[in-house]
Amino acid sequence: MPAVASVLVDFDGTVCLHEAAAHLLERFGEPEWPDYDDAWARGEIDGHSVLLAQAAMLRAPLDNLIGYALRHCPIDPTFGPFVTWCRDHGIPVTVVSDGFGFYIPPLLEAYGIDGVEVRTNSWRPGAPPSLGFDNGHPECAGCGTCKKLLVEGAAARGPVAFVGEGPSDRFGARYADVTFAKVGQPLIDICETERIPYVPWTTFDDVRGWLERPEALPGPAGGEPCPGWRARS
User: Given a cut of 80, is residue 214 above it in pLDDT?
Assistant: First the structure.
């Protein structure tokens, strides 16, 4: 039997082969949208402020935004079979995303993937659009969706596997019992710099193959407070 009790998976760049939020901002946003990401990476601005500023740029009708994502942002073809394998072994899979959220359920549905819980930010249409941080930390604004809290919550069931690729996944990776970091993506460099144990992966077949083997779990790297901590203003 696999050694984990649940799997948490990032969406943009992980389940989805493209960074869906970036694609939408490139098509519908304003030229300065990357500046917010760069400021967040330098620790100059909190994640809430970044997401709210970028969400406000997406003024196209929601159906247009979803349609664009469906046409341009494919799901990894190995994700569906991975979800089926997890279901067959009684392992719940949860998508944990710090993106805009609205495109995740339509993309999963389009690829016939069901039975996956989605924890992300909630889209609030308007002029301009906004976001609700339903899965955020009650005190910290470092991220919109707090992957640290979601990993810790899942740990009540037993050992947690976390699958990701980017900088926002750093905060889930530190607290998971085993972290899968996508080859060629920033999370690997972060894990090596911060001494977070990780397993490299390219497809979800790699993740499943590792979980099928009876190996000891590396255990959480931990660290308090969370390195992305930003108190709410």
Answer: no
What's the CA gap between 24 and 28, in Å, rounded? 6
Average pLDDT value for the chain: 95
**Under 8 Å between Cβ of 181 and 7:** no
Report the predicted TM-score, pTM, of the whole model to 2 decimal places: 0.96
How do residues 112-128 score in pLDDT, each as one tens digit?
A: 999 999 999 999 999 99
DSSP structure string for 163-205 = EE-SGGGHHHHTTSSEEEEETTSHHHHHHHHHT---EEESSHH
Domain residues for the domain of 86 are 6-19+75-125+132-212
CATH number, domain with residue 183 = 3.40.50.1000
Position 1 in a domain: no
